[in-house]
Design goal:
Four Helix Bundle (Hemerythrin (Met), subunit A); disordered C terminus; single chain; elongated; disordered N terminus; mainly alpha
Length: about 200
């Protein structure tokens, strides 16, 4: 009889000790899901800004004449500076854990700095088109590489944060960014006279 009561008490104590654990596990799971959803919303805002900014380079892939080239590069310059400012104003979800928020703060700063550098690079390229000064061309390349490095770093860090929150599959680099970088690199093959060495390569492919 005593063994029966002991068994009942043991079962009762187990139910008391394990119930809060189960409840906490569910709460943690809900919290993780909420954090992931908040992150995905923030990530989409980043990709939307990235797509809009790099979309300004699409016309460069159509081998425009020198007049349109100047117009397109000027438009890209303005868009890059606007995007840099937009990243500074981007709000990080307050519901995310503090360490995640700190990481996202660094990430959006990287994007802002990167697009500011790309805007400056377009400015140097416009001056290079006007007078053909090789120093301006070197500054264009320098700023372009600086901007690309910051944005690539931001995307890599963003992917790392996502891995902390979830194991779902994702793209490391958006296609829009990959295509946009190619157009930025192709500008290096344009001379002030409008000759485009990349054109013959493209026609040969």
């Amino acid at each position: 009889m005593i063994h029966k009561y002991v068994s009942i008490l043991l079962l009762f104590s187990l139910s008391i000790s394990t119930y809060p654990t189960i409840s906490l596990s569910k709460n943690e799971n809900n919290s993780n899901q909420q954090a992931l959803q908040a992150f995905l919303t923030f990530e989409k805002q980043i990709y939307d800004l990235l797509d809009t900014a790099m979309g300004s380079l699409n016309e460069l892939g159509e081998k425009p004449g020198m007049k349109n080239l100047y117009k397109n590069v000027w438009s890209a310059k303005q868009k890059f500076f606007d995007t840099s400012l937009a990243f500074t104003k981007l709000k990080i979800p307050p519901t995310l854990p503090d360490d995640i928020k700190a990481s996202l703060k660094d990430i959006k700063d990287s994007f802002s700095t990167g697009f500011d550098a790309l805007g400056a690079s377009m400015g140097y390229f416009l001056q290079y088109i006007d007078n053909g000064n090789p120093i301006l061309f070197d500054r264009f390349v320098e700023k372009r590489e600086e901007g690309v490095a910051f944005i690539d770093g931001g995307l890599t860090s963003l992917a790392s944060v996502k891995m902390q929150l979830s194991s779902i599959e994702f793209k490391l680099k958006p296609n829009t960014w990959i295509v946009g970088k190619r157009y930025l690199n192709e500008l290096q093959n344009i001379t002030p006279s409008g000759n485009r060495s990349i054109q013959s390569q493209s026609e040969g492919n």
